[in-house]
Every structure is written in C-alpha cells, then in structure tokens.
C-alpha cells in the first residue's frame, strides 16, 4: 500500500448546463451536522443538474489495498456486476461520472479505473433516495445497500446499514453471512477544488478487506 498526493489535474471548461438547488442529501442530515461541513462539500452536494445531464470528476488512485479475503470478495462480486475494486494499483487515473436519473429521481454513478496492463475496470451503481434510511445504492442484479450519511471530522461519510435483494416486487433482507461487512465511503475536502473519496470495507471477522482512496477534481459539467 502506498500513497501520493496529486498536485495538478487537467480539467475541461465548465459548460452552460443549468443547475438547480439540491436538497436531497441535505434532508438526510440535521441542521447542526450540515452546518459542520466545509463550504466546498456543501456546494458539491447542493447542486443538481437537469435530468439526464452528467458531471465528470477526474482523479488518480493514491492508495489501494486488499487482503486475501478482500480479493476473493471482489472476484465473487463480479457475478453481480463487479461493484468492488479488483486491483491495487496506485498512480493510475480514475474517472467518476454522476448522471441525474429522471426515472427514479436519483443518480447513476459510473467509476472507471485505469490499469497499466489490460482494460480498465468499470463499476456502475445507482443511488436512490428511498428506503428506511432515505438513501439506497443499487449495485446490480437487484442487490442494494441502505446508506446512512453522517458528518465526521468535517467529512461527509456514507455508512452501509443493511443489504437486500429485490426480486420483482419482493424485497428480501440479506443475512449478515451473505454480506461483505461494513462499507464506508468518505468524501473529504482538500481545498483548491480537490477532494478525496475513500472506500473501505471492514468485515466483523476478517477485518479490513478492501481500501481504495482517490483524489478528484471536477472536470466538466
């Protein structure tokens, strides 16, 4: 595992895409917690594009690690679309796109992680503002996780609080032994337009399985 800070990014000029005030994430936090966020994060999660439009973030993987159990978990997850990072290369480009989904009122996320050898890994997921926690992320084949958001050390943190499987109109809560453990995604501001996204999965028995961190900047909107 290694770490390196990105100092510069190549960015594209912003377009004339129309923006709206977005209260979807704000509604999931108390006034006190929302007020503890840095202004840059507040602005990033308070803008909404027109349905179908996309914002693009460009970055670089600065840290990546996986235990043996984490590697097997990532490989097994490919059966439902590959929602977990399968590599541990650092210093490789990563691109994240967020598209407004008119059908669900949520967002479609695509993560593209380059590899020095072979094709890049592409991860798709969809966030929907629904469920018992008010936010769910669908990762493929009807599998989803409920997310709870919190403010920790001036960062916006997403915690998994349960996994489920949807089959047509039916939803089944997955037992703990069929889940990877606690998944946490942290969005922390670095200043000057840069921010860090960190994904970490910790299993109650096997400990930390996967950790990946990348630094981004908005490229276009």
Written description of the protein model:
This protein is mainly β and 221 residues long. Helices cover 10% and strands 49% of the residues. The protein is built from three helices and 13 strands, in the order E-H-H-E-E-H-E-E-E-E-E-E-E-E-E-E. The chain has helices at residues 31-35, 39-44, 68-77, and strands at 19-21, 47-49, 54-66, 93-100, 107-113, 121-128, 136-140, 143-152, 155-167, 170-173, 182-191, 194-203, 207-220. A ten-stranded antiparallel β-barrel has the order 3-4-5-6-7-8-9-11-12-13. A two-stranded antiparallel sheet has the order 1-2. A hairpin with a 7-residue loop joins strand 6 and strand 7. The longest helix has 10 residues, at 68-77. The chain is globular. The chain starts with 18 loop residues before the first strand and ends with a strand. 23% of the residues are buried. Residues 1-15 have low confidence and may be disordered.
Task: Present the secondary structure layout.
Layout: E1 19-21, H1 31-35, H2 39-44, E2 47-49, E3 54-66, H3 68-77, E4 93-100, E5 107-113, E6 121-128, E7 136-140, E8 143-152, E9 155-167, E10 170-173, E11 182-191, E12 194-203, E13 207-220
Defining key terms:
221 residues; mainly beta; ten-stranded antiparallel barrel; two-stranded antiparallel ribbon; 3 helices; 49% strand; disordered N terminus; DUF4166; DUF4166 domain-containing protein
């Amino acid at each position: 595992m290694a770490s390196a800070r990105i100092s510069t990014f190549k960015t594209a000029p912003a377009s004339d895409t129309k923006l709206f005030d977005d209260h979807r994430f704000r509604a999931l936090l108390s006034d006190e917690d929302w007020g503890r966020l840095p202004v840059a994060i507040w602005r990033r999660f308070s803008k909404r594009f027109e349905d179908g439009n996309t914002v693009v973030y460009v970055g670089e993987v600065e840290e990546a690690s996986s235990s043996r159990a984490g590697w097997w978990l990532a490989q097994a997850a490919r059966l439902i679309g590959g929602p977990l990072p399968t590599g541990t290369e650092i210093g490789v480009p990563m691109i994240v796109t967020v598209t407004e989904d008119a059908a669900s009122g949520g967002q479609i996320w695509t993560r593209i992680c380059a590899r020095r050898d072979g094709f890049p890994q592409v991860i798709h997921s969809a966030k929907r503002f629904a469920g018992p926690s008010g936010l769910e992320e669908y990762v493929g084949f009807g599998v989803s996780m409920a997310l709870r958001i919190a403010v920790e050390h001036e960062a916006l943190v997403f915690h998994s609080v349960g996994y489920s499987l949807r089959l047509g109109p039916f939803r089944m809560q997955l037992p703990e032994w069929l889940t990877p453990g606690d998944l946490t995604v942290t969005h922390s501001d670095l200043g000057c337009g840069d921010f860090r996204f960190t994904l970490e999965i910790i299993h109650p028995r096997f400990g930390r399985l996967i950790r990946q961190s990348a630094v981004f900047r908005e490229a276009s909107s």
